[in-house]
Amino acid sequence: MSAKIVVLIPYYENRLGLIDAINSIQESFPVDLMIVDDGSIKEPLQVDEAYKIYGDRGTIIYDVLPKNRGIENALNMGLQNILERDYKYIGRLDCGDRFHKGKLEKQITYLEANKEVKLLGTWANIIDDKENFIYIEKHPVYYNEIKKKIYLNTTFIHPSVVFESAILSQIGLYPVSYPAAEDYAFFMSIVKKYKSENYPEVLMDYVVDPNSISSLKRKRQVKSRIKVILENYYLGWYPSYGLIRNILLLLISRTASNRIKSIIRK
Question: What's this model's pTM, rounded to 2 decimal places?
Answer without folding.
Answer: 0.92
